[in-house]
Structures are given as C-alpha cells and as structure tokens.
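Q: What does the assembly look like in three dimensions?
Context provided by user:
Components: two
Sequences:
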Amino acid sequence: MYRYDDFDDAFVRTRVAQFRGQVERRIDGSLTEDEFKPLRLMNGLYLQLHAYMLRVAIPYGTLRAEQMRQLGMIAERWDEGYGHFTTRQNIQFNWPKLKDVPDILEALADVEMHAIQTSGNTIRNVTADHFAGAAADEIEDPRPAAELLRQWSTDHPEFQFLPRKFKIAITGSPNDRAVVKAHDIGLRMIRNEAGEPGFEVLVGGGLGRTPMIGKVIRDFLPKEDLLPYCEAIVATYNLLGRRDNKYKARIKITVHENGIDTFRDLVEQKFIETRAAFGGADQELLREIEAAFAPPAFRAVDTAPFEAAREADPVFRAWADTNLAEHKDAGHAIVTISLKKPGATPGDATAEQMRVMADLADKYSYGELRVSHEQNIILPHVAKDDLPALHDALKSVELATANLGLVSDIIACPGMDYCALATARSIPIAQEIAERFEELKLEHEIGELKLKISGCINACGHHHVGHIGILGLDRAGVENYQITLGGDATETAAIGERAGPGFPAEEIVGAIERLVLGYLDVREGPEETFLQAYRRLGPDPFKAALYPDTKDAA
Amino acid sequence: MPLDAPIGERVAALNGRYRHHGATAVLGHALKDPDVGRVALVSSFGAESVVLLHMVATLQRDLPVLFIDTEMLFPETLEYQRELSERLHLTNVQVIKATEAEIEKRDPFGLLHKANPDACCDLRKTVPLETALSQYGAWITGRKRYQGGKRVTLDFFEEEDAKRIKINPLAHWTPKDVQEYIAENRLPRHPLVAQGYPSIGCAPCTSRVADGEDPRAGRWRGRDKDECGIHFIGGKPVRGIPAPGEEPHEEMSDEGVEVLTTEYEAEGGEHAAEETSMNVIVTDTGFGPETYNDEPMDLGSDTNPAELPEGWEQAGMIRIAFPSFNDGRGFTLASGLRAKGYKGRLRAAGHVIADQYAMARRSGFDEVEISPELAERQPEAQWLARADWQAHNYQARLRGRRPAA
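A: Here is the predicted structure of the complete assembly.
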C-alpha cells in the first residue's frame, strides 16, 4: 500500500497548521464568515443540523489496520463513540467541537490521513472499486492511478473554486463496482486492441435532483495521459460551467447544455496545452506508487477446512455464500463485513467495532481493510482456512450479518435525523424495512436486491440507481416516500423510473413488502433477480403489486 | 372584559389568569383570548426565534409574522428567514422596512450606525415597527427573564404605553429550555450561532461573544446600549423598559451622538480619503503601491480563452478580474495564458483573499491587486504567510519542476 513520503507528510501537517490559523483569524474577525466557509469546507468541516460534522477522506477506500484503529480512537475521544461510513468512501464524525477539530486533523495526519477536499466546490475524494487489488476480474489495480489523481487534485491551484463540487471514480475491472457512470468523471479500465490497459473516460454522470448517466468522452485513454486529460476536462468545466444557478452548476448540466461533442472538442483542444505541461515526472511517480501497491505475498492455503466448515455449519454457509467474493488468489477470499445489521444505522460503526475490525485485519487480512460505497467494510485478502475463525470472531461483535447484496443491505443517507438538507427520515425507514424482511425470513430466497434510500432530492443515498429506490420528500409538512424501480449502478447503469404516487411513512414498509412479494410471484425462478425480472416484464406487474386498490380502475 | 377596558386592567387580568401556564399554553390562549385583540408575532429570525416561530406554526400558521429587515442584517439571517418560513409553512410573513425616502434623508451613506447607533435603530427598526404595529392590539416577543438587564422582572403580559399588550410567552424560560425545545423539535438553527453569535442583530453592531460572556454581550459591543429601542414610553422610543426608579435617559443619547460623531469624523477624515483612492498591490514581499504606469489589458472572468483580444501576446500587463473570491475562473484563465506562452506581467485584481494568494501564484499570476478595505481587513502578514507558495506544491512535483530552495 502507498505510504506517505516526507512530501505528503509535510503537506498535510502544513495544512493542519494553516487551518488552525484560519480558525483563529475567523475568531478575530479578519476572515468574514462568508470567507471562512469555503476554507472550512476545503478541510472537510460542515455545519449540520445539530453541530459541526467532520468528513474524513478514505482515499480509494483503502485503510491500514492502524488507520482504522485511529479512527476508532478519534470517535471515542472527540466524538460520541461512533463514526458513519458514507457512500463516497469517507467517514463522518457527527459531533466534533470546533476547538477540537485542529487536534483531530493532527491525529489523522499521524496515520497519513486527512479531511482535505471532502467538501467545497473542488475535486473531492477519489473513489475506487472496493475490491481493488484483490478482485479476480481485475485488469489492473486502479489504486495507483487513484493515488496519482489524489496528489494531482490535492490543493490544485486552479480547481479550489469550481462552479460546484467534482467527483471522480475509478475501477480497474470491467465489472463496475464503483458506480463510475454516476460521477463527474468516471474512469473504467479496459484494454485496447493491442492489449494495453487504459481507460474508457466518462463525463457528466451524476445523481442528485437531475440524475444523468455519464457519457463517453474518450473511448480509450492511454494510462500516461490520465492527469493531463483530467486536467483538460476540469479546466474546460471551470470556465464553461454555470455559476448563476447552484442547481445547474454541475458538469452534467454543462455537458448536457453544450452537448457532449462540443464539450469533447473543447477538452481535446485544452488537452494539447495540458499535455505539454506534464514532463514525465508524473509517470515516474506512478511507477513508484505502483510498486508500493504490490500485493502482499499470499501464503499457500489448503481450502479443505473451509469446504468442510461450509458443509457442516449452515450459519457459516449462509454468511459465506453472501458475504464472500472471488479473490484473484484461489486460496483467498474477499470478505465483506456488513454494517447493515437489521435495526442498526446503515454505515455506522462503533469505536469498539473499528478496533475489532482493525485487529481482525492484522490477524487475517495482511493488515488491510477497504470501505465500500455501499457502506460496508471489507477484509480484502483472507486465507480460506481462516474463514471459520474469522466468522466466529465477527459473530461475537455482531458483525457477521449475512445480508450482502440482499434486501436489508440498504444504502441510506443520514436523512433528517442528522442532515440540514433532508426533507424526510431515511435511517428509520431502512431499519424498519430490514427488520420486516428479517421477520419474514425471505431474504435469502429473494436474492440480490439493491435497495437505496435518500432523504431528499440531492440523492446521497443513490436511490436513482437502486433496483428499488426510495426518495423521501416533504409534502406539506408530511414525509412522503416515492418509489423508483429498475435502477442499476453497475456497468449496465440505468436511472430508476418512478412507480407512481408516494407513500406516507407508515405505509412505505408495507409497500416495499408487497412489491418484493409481487416479484417472487412473477419471477421465472430463483436465478432471475429482481432487476432481471423488471427488465423482462416492464413496470406493470410491479406497479400492480404496489397499488393493488387502483388495479381495477387502471 | 371588553377590549375597550383599560389595557392595564386587561394585562393584570391576563397575568392572573395564566400565571401558572407554560409557554405554549400562554401563547395558545393569547391567540384566542378575547381580552387580547389582534395579535402579531414580531421576529428577528435570530438565534432563538425559531422557538416562537415553530409554536406559531403549530398553533396558527397564518398569524402575521413581522420581520424587520433593517437592510443591515447578516446575509445568513435573510437566508435563514426564507428557509425557515418555507420549512415551517408560515403563510403570513411580512417584511417591514424603513421607507426609501427616510433612508435617503437620514442615512444616505449607510453609516449612521457608526455615528449614532440609537438613531440608526430608530430609523431602521423602531419607527417601521411602530408603524406596522399600529394595526394590532398586541404583539408577541421572545424576550426572556434570563436575558438579564432590564428583563429580569418580565411577565407574560405587559402593558405598552396604554396602546398595546406585549405577550412574552417565553418570559420564564431558561437557556436550557430553549436549547431543548430546538433539539427536541429538530429545528434548524441560525447558522451564525455555531460561529459564536448567541444573539444576532444587525451585522455592523453584532460581534462574536466569548465563552463565559453574557449572550447579549456581542450586541452594540462597546456602546452604552443594550436594547434596540423597540420599546416605547410616552410615544417615544426608549431603551427598554425602565427598571423601577429609572427614568429614560433621553439626554444620554445626545451625549452619545457627540462622542461618536467625533470618532466617525476621524475615521472618515482626509487620511482615509487618500487611502481609498489607492489599491494595494500584493507580491511575495508584501504590500506595495502601484508600480505599473501603463494601461493594463483587462480581462473579465468570463473571457473565452479562444477569443482573446488582439495583441494580448505583447501586452505589458494582463489584469484578470475576480468579481468574487469564489469565482475561480481567473485561475484557469491565468494558467491558460501561461500555457499559451504569455510572458508579461499577470495580475489578479478584485476580491482575492489572502488564503488564495498561493493559488494565484501557482496559477501563473505575478501579483494581486486588492482594495484598501480588503487590505485593512486582511493585513500584510496574512498574505506574507502564503508567500511560501512554492513549498508543498503537488503540481511542481507532478510536472517535474523542482520547488525553489
């Protein structure tokens, strides 16, 4: 894994010192609140409904055990004993005091972490496939490129005051687990005809109030052109993006209003300039970073004990069948630890859980962890003969929920319980749905089903790309939940369609239950997932299940 | 008791009737009690206003809510007023302002608050409110006993100069009550509260309050003034309700005028006038005067880099406008000019802040031109702190340029 060199360390510590100074100058009045706000936001400090919130970046979702341990320490010492893993590979602390924030940043710097550019109209934390470096289907580990992008975007002098925030996601696998089509820039690694790895570059994707699927701006970009090409895109957007209307300022609108062809022409023109500015130093650095990301030396593993445990223990089997993914080394597996225990807040982890996961990473996963945009934690390299012991350890701290990809593995934004923008609650709805399906004991029969909940039109819960999406709105002071169907976050990305009128809070759980039971009635067999059935049959049978009373009238 | 009974009697009866009620009950009864008359809520949309606004929204959302826009408020307050009105679905918020003619006559330069804060409150707050309130029999205020000073003996109902009743439903609330109400009802807070402003009035006369200070210490700090004068006796605005034995000190404000006027003269004197004509040029060595004697070529922040004015390559200086510090187009324009080979002087001019100095230099600017007001607010040291812009520069490392030692 990449380790900070002296340059990175000095950079982060200087930023902490600058922020300390900015806090002081805000207090003495030399910075107005208007001027302080973007500076605080560039350091990840938000003002939320009840208090400040500090958002810490977990670049490309990769954590070392000691970093996870430090996050637990911060949660305990300066927060209320827990942290919230977000849908963009960040962790949020919801209760820091302003005076403590410079100290928290210092503690993060101690383990090579920061909160820089997790907010504000700038390039945000670069996210990546959470199975990066471990997945069997990967062309190359995308994290070296992501680290290069992190360094390039950090403190980029031109791009701290963009028209609006800017998000980049990268995947090294043709199977997109990083939702690259819903990002301002999406990078999907592919091979060209000569077999060389490079990127398909997408631009202008995004969710929010105007969901759009990213458009291809370059079919194939050689790896060495990554920084100058991204710089050309962001520079073009910086000049062309609208600044008159916050809701039309994202690059998806810029691309939509100007057309992808015009936008591409401008970018390619600018690319001539930006390409000349890079003299190869970035590529040298990339090679060093790549060396740092060399996989650990995987030990030889006898998989027989794993197979035996799987046969003998049905609880272990249920967990293994849902929460393991194929590793590039046949003796190892990728383990996802679900932070979605029914009844718990999706994405929350206590300080104690963070410490346990750090210890388990040290013991069973070569000291590495990952954070997924689906708000789960991953142990990327677990030898298969260790799996039964790991499962036992997880069970003892209630982290062995076997629901990955199932209906209760819900993505939910913080909602009105924490967020000033939210118009409805999302966490309690997620909890109620998960608990209901837990009672029905149908979850494993239902199979893969991505349910995503946003508490307002800004769509932090990615509801547009959920197989079932729930959007909480405020209708004349009453919470109302709209359902979208058929969304997809993968390489076959699609925006879900609205099913019909919304439901009040007390009816939404029943509606979801009718919908899912309706799916069980119409599917061809257990192999046909909800999304496949929806694509085969269209929305009608699903709408009929949702709105039984209006069926006769329709 | 008929409405034409003397106000003093009605107030005494109301206080007796509701002495043991809580805030919501008092408010609920006040809105219905025939002894009260026509009621409005006067709200500053300040630090604690959300409590009464929320109570009114749940009891009677079309109750007239009078919001006095002194045109000196924090932008955060205006934004908060809009958001809160929408969120609480208040349907009858009325914005009260001084007339343009009055402002033109008494405070044409918007500086009256420096010379005579009482007169400014009078012009922008007290008179417009008095005019608006003339249609009402009673008004609701958020004043509380714990706010101290002249408020420690506050009752639920007060007589205001034989004209109206003042209703103070929160008279007996403690700061803890207020905070709990806001938290329990998940109400959005005024964004400045978390910035250290527990009491929020007009921007020029509100300052931050330190830990341990009285929450209202930030209002008219350094002035002999602790109420805005929305409170009347004998038809004239006075500073608050006089405590027993205390007479309104009308002559005191006259003294105040004199002293403060002198101070204002000093500030606006010849020296200051000289300064306002000269912008400050910031370079790596700090502040300096103008050193360029030609006309620079001026580019707006909306310049299309493909359509630069003729002769830009030869221009001795190109000056790029920053209409606002959060308009970052100038940085990309500058970097683009350098990439196209421009070798002359490149200047960023306008609203650039000290924290952006390193960004400007790294984007290819040689210098920054700022107004004397900005230079005063962000003195030289804050700019010099970023004169180290060549250190810790990721771009230099990625582009293979060596940072200067």
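Follow-up: The first strand of chain B starts at residue 39 and ends at 43.
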